[in-house]
Amino acid sequence: MKLEGTIPLFPLHELIEMVVYSSVTGTLNVYGPGAPGTLYFRDGVLYHAERGSAEGMTALSELFEVTEAHFTFVSDVTTEAESLWGTLHEHLHTAQRLAARWRKLRAYIPHMDLIPLLLGSHEQLVHRVSPKHHTIFQALDQQSDLRQLAQKLGWAEIDVGEAIVQLCVDGLIELRPTRQTTAQVESPTDDQKSPRTGGLFDRIRSRTPPRPAPPPPAAAATTAPQSTPEEPASEPKEAESPDDLILKLLRG
Q1: Which candidate, 29, 105, 22, 17, places its Cα nearest to that of 63?
Q2: pLDDT at 244
Q3: Which Pfam families does the record cross-reference, listed alphabetically (predicted)?
């Protein structure tokens, strides 16, 4: 079973909650700018996330930064990898908080494959570094990218990102892409250029049967026998809501 739609019409956190509530197994795939992401569920439990080289909470928070994307849910797909533990509330709260912090940095750090370079000699710049950034300044080697720098320091990537942006604002460093990153840049695919149309909600609306129109009074008078008492017309059933239909599709 496979279903699809767009993130602007169905926010990611609501979609995740819907999958968890449905207690299904499968993958929720998100396609937007940059690398696609995949969330894995087993019996409604979110246990793994991946996007490009990122996994776990890093990948999940990156997906919450995406505002224009489309998604597909494919049932019965699993993986042996596991990178998320804890409750759904913890996952969503942490991922959304990290996404909000990253949005403030993305003008400087679109990705972690960037190398911080000093704008001068170490001796010229060290006296301009604030005490709280001294540790990361001393770790700059003109070769390590931001992800490697985070691993070397044992810091979270978001903490490295915030410190690096401040050093950029202070005019102490600049960020340049690695050669590997430059060589791997590709033009966006058709799926990434624009969200798909005719997604989940369009199909749901098309499957919802219209309410039958009552017959005109004149036609009813000519077709009904005079001797038979007219039976009261039964009220049409109310159409199911999109949420109910999504749950039915998820549950198969």
Answers
A1: 29
A2: 62
A3: DUF4388 (PF14332)
Q: Cα separation of 246 and 223, whole Å?
A: 41
Task: Give the pLDDT of residue 178.
Answer: 82
The alpha-carbon radius of gyration of the chain (Å, integer) is 27
Indicate the residue among 130, 165, 184 that finishes a domain. Answer: 184
Say whether both 9 and 97 belong to one domain.
yes
Residue 50 in tokens:
């991946």
One-character DSSP codes across 84-115 = --S-HHHHHHHHHHHHHHHHTTTTT-SSS-EE
Residue 93 shares a structural domain with residue 118: no
CA 1/CA 177 separation, integer angstroms: 41
Half-sphere exposure of 142 (CA within 13 A, CB side): 5
Q: Which of 41, 72, 103 is the last residue of a domain?
A: 103
Averaged pLDDT score across all residues of the chain:
81
Distance of CA 188 to the CA centre of its chain: 18
- List the helix and strand counts (H, then E) for the chain: 12, 8
Provide the domain limits for residue 42.
2-103
**Which residues in the chain land under pLDDT 50?**
182, 184-208, 219-225, 227-228
Pairing state of beta strands 70-75 and 54-55?
unpaired
CATH code, domain with 133: 1.10.10
0.85 surpassed by pTM: no
Q: Which amino acid is at 117?
A: L
Q: Is residue 157 part of a domain?
A: yes
